[in-house]
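This protein record is not my work; I was only asked to verify it. The record follows directly below this note.
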Amino acid sequence: MSDSAFLSVQERVRTAASAKTPLAIRGGGTRDFYGQAIVGDVVDMRALAGIVDYDPTELVVTARAGTPVAEIDDALAARGQMLGCDAPRFGIGATIGGLVATGLAGPRRPYAGAVRDLILGVRIVDGKGDDLSFGGRVMKNVAGFDVARLMTGALGTLGILTEVSMKCLPLPKLEATRAFECTADDAIRWTNEWGGKPLPISATCHHAGRLFVRISGSAPALEAATAKMGGSAVADGTALWESVRDHTHSHFVAARESASAIWRLSVKATAPYRDLGGEQLIEWGGALRWLVAGPRTDAGAIRAWAQGNGGHATLFRAADKSPGVFHPLPQPIAELHRRLKATFDPAGILNRGRLYPDL
């Protein structure tokens, strides 16, 4: 890659590294709320855009980091394909670089794969301004340390993504959504039971006493699943799942309007429902709980409950981030993070403190 936009990124990094000036990497800005406070001079990645290569027969797309996700969606849909991670957009300007840097996935994630499962290769500018490539554009090409997956969810603290290659998946032939009246406990139990059966489930969501389940596949598969599961038909399931994915669902809108904090609880799917002092929306067959903080919500209690149920708690969106955005790391893991940061960004200039305050 030799265009002026790429060279400008390299020069910005080299100059900042010399002066130890922090840089804030930014694409469409739709994920600015996520992570610790943004510090440093903004490096706008939107000029580094465009699909570099797309081979539908190999199910692989390669694009520059500033490419809008919507542009990639349109290109893939035209060939009957999609990004299976179903990552949230949070706005019109969402870019593929931000999608990979945050590593967040949507309702289809337990059934089609996380972002890190679909990433094949990346190209980055590290904290010294060097151009580095890892992985590639085909499956089974990783030898040694899988840096492409390491960059997924690192929030740009280890390198500036300039190009990514991702595996695509075929679009489902048909999809339908079923609704059930039930408690959160019943929803968790049912979705876990269904998860152990050959049912074409591709998303679940429980909120306000109703469980919604999306099924995807051929007409006979959907008919058979409907006969086994029951429930009532939902007229516009597509809009429902997009609202859950992009946080335009009433659960999230109400939280933003009331300036309430939103917690993301990743736990084992069988963890029983527990009142944590606020309203919850439950996804991923019970494995993902979105908690809107209420007057009785306690950060310490939330994190203790999540950890006790095999997971962790993230302060996903909040005005006050003093409790820390991400779950505290055990000392050995924290030390590993510091060593990785020192290797990829020795001057500590890239998205300084965005992941953890000391990184």
Residues 51 and 72 are 7 Å apart (CA to CA).
